[in-house]
Amino acid sequence: MKVLQSKLNRPLSDLEGATLAALAQHGEATSYQLANDFKSSPSEFWSGSAGAIYPLMARLADLGLVEGKAGRKGTRARVLWSLSKRGYEAMLTWLTDVERASGMGFDPLRTRMVHLNLMPEAKRATFLASIADKTKGKKVVQFPSDSPALQALHESWIFARLAWLDQLEGLVVLLSPTNDSAR
Amino acid sequence: MKVLQSKLNRPLSDLEGATLAALAQHGEATSYQLANDFKSSPSEFWSGSAGAIYPLMARLADLGLVEGKAGRKGTRARVLWSLSKRGYEAMLTWLTDVERASGMGFDPLRTRMVHLNLMPEAKRATFLASIADKTKGKKVVQFPSDSPALQALHESWIFARLAWLDQLEGLVVLLSPTNDSAR
DNA sequence: CACCACATGTAAATGGTTACATGATTCT
DNA sequence: AGAATCATGTAACCATTTACATGTGGTG
Fold first, then answer.
1. B74-85 pLDDT, tens per residue?
2. Which one, of B108, B101, B171, B110, lies nearest residue A168 by Cα?
3. Nucleic acid strand D: bases within 7 A of protein CB
4. Staple partner for B29: which of B33, B67, B76, B139, CB 3.0–4.6 Å?
């Protein structure tokens, strides 16, 4: 008698989708390797902790989206994961989801800019300048094992963000006097 | 004997910070109003559900960052929140946190672009075009009660994003052939 | 009268987090 | 010999989510 597989009756979470995609890039990978992908990513949004990835892989296996192969490296046991056919399809569905891909996500700077008027007026310009500095610092890549294409992608993001910051410096003046009534 | 207040031994979560900031903008507000701020925000990252905001306000009150005033509108009872002195300081600390403000956050498009090579080559260009379309659609604002400054801020974000998308179209060609080895 | 906006909350589930625990292998 | 990396997991916690529940007041 076969163990029943759970059915996927919800869209993949973004972490699940991104993990499947990372697995697709590797072909085969251990949970440890996948966790490391997130740890070494320039975005710190996902920690890539064991507590996130190991249960997640178990979940995906239960859903029949990944298959585990008990392998060894030397005498050390390990599980090599790979995508199933359905897993590959699920990953593509997640990847090509225009609705979700065009969302605004979470932007810690945008969230704060909305309330810039609450910041002491004298600090606003230096605040933005510091952000720009920090952002430029990220151009010099800290994450290892990246293809030139990924590097270019990363830099283009930084570049776009710096351009936005330039725009913002113009807006500071516009933001400044308008809302000082609130407190 | 006074009820002891909990102490804040961790940084404010971004939702907590943003809520305090929203409250600062209002001066006084009910939890319902604050929840609505998030509901009507162009970013869908936070739902602004009652289940999020009501317990959050209770938490902030317990921390002594907000003070509730039992008010009424007609015969209908309601709690009007306002920032305490410490709450205002905590909000400013959150608002001016350069480290966090310069983080990359979560970007659903960036997350996917990293894996664009997994997308069928024929779909890539149309995918990006759809995203650009959807993004342009957001310029026409759906959220109510916005000041011209907030509108300008929102538009500048959209503008920057569209510029990035332009860049990406150039990168598609670069991304295309490189990584097709993986599966 | 029906419906919607205002207003306040609770309950259960979930998808993450940090921290802990263990052990083998490789590098210095 | 000791440290770092590879590898796998669990436990406790937490801030969210969706869904449910309840009721008032104003509008068409």
1. 667 789 999 999
2. B101
3. 6-12, 15-21, 23-26
4. B33
Q: Low-confidence residues of chain A, pLDDT below 50?
A: 178-183
* Residues of B in Cβ contact (< 8 Å) with A110: 43, 153, 157
- State whether A149 and B174 contact (CB < 8 Å): yes
Q: Is B55 exposed, middle or buried (0-12, 13-18, 19+ CB in 10 A)?
A: exposed
CA-based nearest distance A143→chain B, Å? 14
For residue range B153-167, list pLDDT tens digits in order. 999 999 999 999 999
Question: What are the backbone dihedrals phi and psi of residue A107, each rounded to the nearest 5 degrees, phi first?
Answer: -120, 110
**What is the model's pTM?**
0.91
Q: Is the CB of B115 less than 8 angstroms away from the CB of A27?
A: no
Give DSSP secondary structure letters for B105-151.
-B-HHHHHHTTGGGS-HHHHHHHHHHHHHHHHHHHS----S--HHHH
Provide the pairing of β-strand A76-83 with B66-73: unpaired
Provide the pLDDT for residue A140.
81
For A154-179, how does the pLDDT look when each residue is reduced to its tens digit (9 = 90+)?
Answer: 999 999 999 999 999 988 887 765 44
Q: Which nucleotides of C are covered by protein (CB under 7 A)?
A: 6-12, 15-21, 23-26
Distance in Å, alpha carbon of B18 to nearest chain A alpha carbon: 7
Q: Would you state the pLDDT for residue B4?
A: 65
**Minimal Cβ distance to B101: which of A108, A123, A178:** A108
